[in-house]
Amino acid sequence: MPKTVKNYRWQTAPAQYGMDRRPIALGAGAMDTLFASGSLNGSVVERHWNTLLDVIGDDPDFLYTWGLTVYVHSFFWIVGGLFVLMDITNRPAFLRRYKTQPGKNEPIDWTDLRRVMKTIFFNQIVIGIPLTFAGYHGTIKGSVPHVRTLPTASVILRDLVVCVIFAEIGFYYVHRFLHLKPLYKLVHKKHHEWTAPFAWTAMYCHPIEHIISNMIPPMIGIQLMKAHIFTTAIWFPLVIFNTIRDHCGYHLPFFPSSEYHDYHHAKFTECFGTFGYLDWLHGTDTKFRKSKQHQRHRTLWGIKSARELYPDS
């Protein structure tokens, strides 16, 4: 375990850790004004953060690689597992009404489940770990902010916005590329074996797809902004939760709708993005907009299911 540095009360992070980064287009004064608000220095968040680092260590080489790997993969299995448990047991019974494709994966076949888990373990361990190390050591090693000096809330928000933009652009165009006939047959068809997906199938795919679609797009913003490990630890669980929600097979109240990507798995030919803006721009959602799933594609603010509010007939 990396040795922990106890004396961490810095007022300003050393320049060698990359905190003195200012875009050329803006002067230092403008940047100071823009990002001075929302400081976390001396806050309860910083105190808890440094307590955590006292336990796990503050070596960025460890945190950006092994630390994130264990953290993100654990999040995937635990959160996704809650949905999978519902599909295995068909309990609680009152949540069955929120299935996007009733009768599918009720329950999940154990043989299929083992096949999915085997593929995911391969992608996470054999593909994911080496790519994580290569991505960190090849791009941002030595230039990331000091891990014990938290960024301001506005810097965190800025970096997250950049991550969202580049992840959406990367995922949409890579996804459309994978739907070209030769690539679809050789690579992407594996993921589309599930016309009615469940949570863990979010990472059930060909290794090439795992690299260019699942891993690289979410990394782009982190590497461009040289984001703090704290920001990164917020961003990657958001990515994982979003893809679990998209594939979970449930449209639950008070959660963002899963109808959009569920439609893509059912029909294959539309809804390639996450948020829909690029699909609208390129006209790859025209059939979806005329569908019953589009009517259901909204956040539910009551206990009635989307199918009850917008029945098939």
From TrEMBL:
Coiled-coil boundaries: none
InterPro entries: Fatty_acid_hydroxylase, Sterol_Desaturase_Related
Chain segments annotated as transmembrane: 70-89, 120-136, 156-174
Molecular function terms from GO: iron ion binding; oxidoreductase activity
Subcellular location: Membrane
Lineage top rank: taxon: Eukaryota
Keywords: Membrane, Transmembrane, Transmembrane helix
Gene Ontology biological-process entries: lipid biosynthetic process
Boundaries of every Fatty acid hydroxylase domain copy: 161-284
Tagged with keyword Transmembrane helix: yes
GO cellular component: membrane
The keyword Transmembrane belongs to this UniProt entry's keyword annotation: yes
The protein's name: Fatty acid hydroxylase domain-containing protein
